[in-house]
Specification:
The protein is of the alpha+beta class. It folds into 5 domains: 98 residues, no CATH class; 204 residues, Alpha-Beta Plaits (2-Layer Sandwich), CATH 3.30.70; 189 residues, Rossmann fold (3-Layer(aba) Sandwich), CATH 3.40.50.300; 71 residues, no CATH class; 60 residues, Arc Repressor Mutant, subunit A (Orthogonal Bundle). Helix content is 35%, strand content 19%. It has a 9-stranded mixed beta sheet with strand order 20-19-21-22-16-23-24-25-26, sandwiched between helices.
C-alpha cells in the first residue's frame, strides 16, 4: 500500500456497533484490499462488545478473494467523513488526496465552560494599599532572585491612549529590585522611576539577559499573557478560574481587562509558540477571546502597585488553577474525551480479569513496557541480546525466568554482520544450545530507521501475524524526534510504544542512555537522559550503573581467575594431588605446584594462559542493576560483571560493598538544585551531537534535518552549532571539523 493514509487510524472514527452487517463486511474487504491484516479488522470489530465473536474476522477474511469491483480505502474514508472526520488543508469539498492530513474535529473538544450559565466572579481591590508590596509580591511570584527584570514607567499619548514610551529598564535583577523596594518607604518612583498616573506602568513577565528587550533576550520561556477585554471583568475572572488555567499571577489592568500570567514552562521558543497557540485556542473555545498581539514572550503586561486614571493596577490573586502547564494540559485533554466509561468495583468484584502473564518473572508482564537505561560501555545492547536469547529459548535472564516465545530484536545501531555475530557470540558465551532460533527475528535498520511515529505503524504491520510476545528496540535515540528534555514531546514519543503494545499484544522493551556526569548520587529512575517521562512511562525500569573496582579487589579477582586456570589444567592432567585446597586459593602456591609438576614447556604454556586470564579479568567491568517496577515488588540490587560479551551475576558477593561511580554522602546531595548555565550548555551540546549522529545515518546532514529532529527552528540549530564549536556550516550543510 503506497500512501500516507493510515486506515487503522481512520476506522477509529467509525463505531462498529453502529454499522450494519454489510458495512462491517465492507470495512474488512477494504482493509484486505489495501494490504492490511486481519488483526486490524479484528481489533476494530472487538469494540462492538455485543456482536463481536473472537475468530469470526479471521474466518471471513479468508473468504475475501477479490473481485472486479473491489471495496477500497475510499469506502472507509467516506464512512469516517460521514461520522464527522475532516481532512486538514482540504478547505473545500474535493476529492481526498493521499497527502492530506487526517484529523477528527469535535466541536465540543476542550470546552469546559458553559458560556450560557457562567456567573461572573467579583474582584476586590486591596484595602491596605501599599504599592511597593504589590510589586514585591509580583516579582517574588514570577522571578528568581538572579533573573533580570524588564519594566517601563514612562509613557506617551496617542489619540487619547497612553503607550509605553521606550524600552524601559532591563539591567537589574529581581533580587536587587526587591531589596530596594523594601527600603523605599513606599516611594516606588525612587526605585523604578516616576510615572504618569493617568497612564500606569508596564512590566515584562519573562526574565531577560540584561542586554535588551526583544524575544531573543528572553532567557527562559516561563510565562504567557492572556488578556481579553471582550467581556466584563467579573466574567473574565470566572472563566479564567473555571478553565483551571495555571495562573501564577492575575492582575487587574486598571481598565477593562485582567492580565493572567500563565505558566508555560517551554524548553525553547518553538515550543513556547506551540503552547501559546494551544492556550489561546482553548481560551477562545471557552468564551475568553485573548488579544493575539500578546503572544510574544517579551511582551509587556500591566505592573501592579501603580495608579491608572481613577483606578489602580493591582494583584487580584496568585497561584490559581492547576499547578503547572503539564498538569493543566493533561486535565484539559481529558475533557470531552472518547475514553471508556468508568467502572464500579461492585460490578466487577466477582469477575475481575486475570493479570497478564509474566514475560520476565518478577519484572515484566506480557503486553507491558520496559526501559533498560545505562551509560555507554555498560553492554546494554549485549544485555538486550541476552534477553532476546533467553525469551527465544525460555531460559533465565539475570537470574529471572523468561517465558518462551517469539521475539523481534529491532537493531538500529549496528551493521547487519556485527549484529548477527553478536547474537552468535552471546549464545556461545552462555553455553546455550541454539534449539529455538526460529523464535528470534532480527530487523536490521541501521541507515534505514525513521522517527518512531513513522516506525510504529510499519512495525505493527510487519509483526501483526508473527505472534511476538516481545519487541526489543535498541537504542531509542535513533528514532527520537523533538527535544528529549521536553515532557510533552517525549510523552508523545512514548505513546508510540503503547500503540505497539496494544496493536500486537506484546511487550515492548527499549534502551536509552544516561545523562552525562556522575550518576551515583541520583536515584536510579532519574539517571536516564532527558525528560522524566522516560523513567515514569514504562512499567519496569532497569538501570545499570558502573561500580568502582578497588586495586585490592582487582588483585583478588585476578588471583581467583589464575588459580582456576591452573587447577583446571592440573585436574585435566590427573595431577590434582599436587596441590591442597588451601593451595587452590593462592596464585603463588599454584604456580609453585605447576612448576614442580609440569615440564618446562607445559609450565610456560600454562603461564601464558594465566597471562591471558589476567588481561580478561582486567577488561571486565562491574555493574549494579536496580529496578523500578510497577507490577512486582522491588528486587534487591543485582551486582554483576560485564565479561564480554555477556553479563555474569556476582555469585561470590565480592561486589556487595562496591560503591557506584559518583556516589557521595547524603549531606552533599543537592535535591531540587536549579541547573547551572554550564549544565544547560552541556545538555544543548549533547543534544546537537545526538541529532547529528542520528541524521547522519543517511549521509549528508543539513540544518533543516537537525531542526526537524530537535523540534526547534533553524536559527536555534545554527546558534547551538556555533556554541558547540566542533561543527562547520556550508550553505545549509553541516559537518564535523577534523582533528
Amino acid at each position: 500500500m503506497n500512501n500516507e493514509i493510515n486506515l487503522a487510524e481512520v476506522i477509529e472514527y467509525i463505531n462498529p456497533a453502529d454499522c450494519s452487517y454489510q458495512d462491517w463486511i465492507n470495512v474488512g474487504m477494504a482493509l484486505k484490499h489495501e494490504g492490511y491484516t486481519a488483526a486490524v479488522w479484528e481489533a476494530w470489530s472487538s469494540r462492538d462488545t455485543v456482536r463481536y465473536h473472537p475468530g469470526e474476522c479471521e474466518r471471513k477474511w479468508s473468504s475475501f478473494n477479490g473481485n472486479a469491483n473491489p471495496v477500497t480505502a475510499g469506502t472507509i474514508v467516506q464512512m469516517a467523513k460521514n461520522n464527522g472526520m475532516t481532512f486538514c488543508g482540504s478547505g473545500e469539498n474535493r476529492a481526498l488526496d493521499w497527502d492530506d492530513e487526517i484529523s477528527y474535529e469535535q466541536h465540543d473538544d476542550h470546552v469546559v465552560v458553559d458560556k450560557k450559565w457562567i456567573e461572573g466572579k467579583e474582584i476586590n481591590a486591596p484595602q491596605d494599599w501599599q504599592p511597593h508590596k504589590e510589586i514585591i509580591r509580583y516579582l517574588e511570584a514570577l522571578f528568581e532572585q538572579s533573573e533580570n527584570v524588564g519594566y517601563v514607567m514612562q509613557s506617551w499619548e496617542k489619540d487619547g491612549k497612553y503607550l509605553p514610551a521606550n524600552k524601559g529598564s532591563y539591567d537589574r535583577t529581581a533580587g536587587q529590585l526587591i531589596e530596594l523596594l523594601s527600603k523605599c518607604d513606599g516611594d516606588i518612583g525612587s526605585v523604578l522611576g516616576d510615572y504618569n498616573t493617568q497612564a500606569g506602568a508596564w512590566i515584562r513577565f519573562n526574565p531577560l539577559d540584561g542586554k535588551g528587550v526583544k524575544n531573543e533576550n528572553v532567557t527562559e520561556y516561563k510565562y504567557a499573557l492572556v488578556e481579553s477585554d471582550s467581556t466584563d471583568i467579573e466574567r473574565q475572572n470566572a472563566i479564567i478560574r473555571e478553565m483551571e488555567l495555571p495562573v501564577a499571577v492575575l492582575v487587574f489592568s486598571g481598565k477593562k481587562s485582567l492580565h493572567a500570567i500563565v505558566r508555560i514552562d517551554a524548553a525553547n521558543y518553538d515550543e513556547y509558540r506551540k503552547r501559546v497557540d494551544f492556550l489561546y485556542q482553548i481560551c477562545q473555545k471557552n468564551g475568553l477571546s485573548p488579544d493575539t498581539q500578546n503572544r510574544n514572550p517579551s511582551r509587556l503586561s500591566r505592573l501592579p502597585g501603580v495608579q491608572r486614571g481613577d483606578n489602580r493596577q493591582y494583584i487580584v490573586d496568585t497561584n490559581i488553577g492547576k499547578a503547572s502547564w503539564d498538569e493543566w494540559r493533561e486535565w484539559i485533554d481529558s475533557v470531552n474525551d472518547d475514553l471508556p466509561d468508568e467502572e464500579n468495583m461492585s460490578d466487577v468484584w466477582d469477575n475481575i480479569p486475570d493479570l497478564a502473564p509474566p514475560l520476565i518473572d518478577g519484572i515484566l508482564r506480557q503486553g507491558h513496557k520496559m526501559l533498560v537505561a545505562g551509560p555507554s560501555k555498560a553492554g546494554k545492547s549485549y544485555a538486550l541480546i541476552e534477553l532476546c536469547c533467553a525469551i527465544a529459548e525460555g531460559k533465565k535472564w539475570l537470574g529471572f525466568p523468561c517465558t518462551k516465545g517469539k521475539v523481534m530484536y529491532v537493531n538500529l545501531e549496528l551493521d547487519r554482520a556485527s549484529c548477527l555475530h553478536r547474537v552468535k557470540d552471546v549464545y556461545t558465551a552462555l553455553n546455550w544450545a541454539p534449539e529455538n532460533l526460529n523464535n528470534l527475528d532480527i530487523w536490521n535498520l541501521r541507515g534505514k530507521s525513521v522517527p518512531m511515529d513513522k516506525l510504529a505503524p510499519k512495525l505493527i504491520r510487519r509483526a501483526a501475524k508473527k505472534n511476538y510476545i516481545a519487541v526489543v528496540i535498541d537504542p531509542i535515540y535513533k528514532v527520537i524526534t523533538g527535544d528529549e528534555n521536553s515532557a510533552d514531546q517525549m510523552a508523545h514519543f512514548c505513546n508510540q510504544f503503547d500503540k505497539v503494545c496494544t496493536e500486537l499484544g506484546c511487550a515492548v522493551i527499549y534502551c536509552h542512555h544516561h545523562s552525562k556526569g556522575a550518576q551515583g548520587g541520583k536515584r536510579s529512575m532519574d539517571r536516564a537522559s532527558g525528560s522524566g517521562v522516560f523513567a515514569r512511562d514504562p512499567d519496569a525500569l532497569l538501570d545499570l550503573i558502573e561500580l568502582e573496582i578497588s586495586d585490592s579487589l582487582m588483585t583478588q579477582e585476578k588471583n581467583n581467575a589464575a588459580c582456576e586456570v591452573m587447577t583446571r589444567y592440573l585436574d585435566k592432567c590427573g595431577l590434582d594431588d599436587e596441590y591442597s585446597q588451601d593451595d587452590a586459593c593462592s596464585r603463588k602456591a599454584m604456580q609453585d605446584a605447576c612448576r614442580s609438576a609440569l615440564s618446562n614447556d607445559k609450565y610456560k604454556m600454562i603461564m601464558q594462559e594465566v597471562t591471558l586470564s589476567d588481561k580478561r579479568t582486567e577488561s571486565r567491568t562491574a555493574w549494579r542493576i536496580e529496578g523500578t517496577l510497577r507490577e512486582f515488588p522491588k528486587f534487591a540490587p543485582i551486582n554483576m560483571w560485564f565479561d564480554y560479551p555477556i553479563h555474569k551475576i556476582d555469585s561470590s558477593g565480592v561486589l556487595k560493598d562496591a560503591e557506584a561511580e559518583g556516589d557521595s554522602p547524603s549531606w552533599q546531595k543537592n535535591f531540587g538544585r536549579k541547573k547551572t548555565d554550564k549544565e544547560r550548555k552541556n545538555e544543548r551540546k549533547e543534544s546537537i551531537e545526538t541529532a547529528y549522529e542520528a541524521c547522519g545515518m543517511n549521509g549528508k546532514v543539513t540544518i533543516k534535518d537537525l531542526a526537524e529532529y530537535l523540534g526547534v527552528t533553524e536559527k536555534t540549530v545554527r546558534s547551538r552549532l556555533k556554541e558547540h564549536g566542533d561543527f562547520w556550516i556550508d550553505e545549509g550543510t553541516v559537518g564535523k571539523k577534523s582533528g
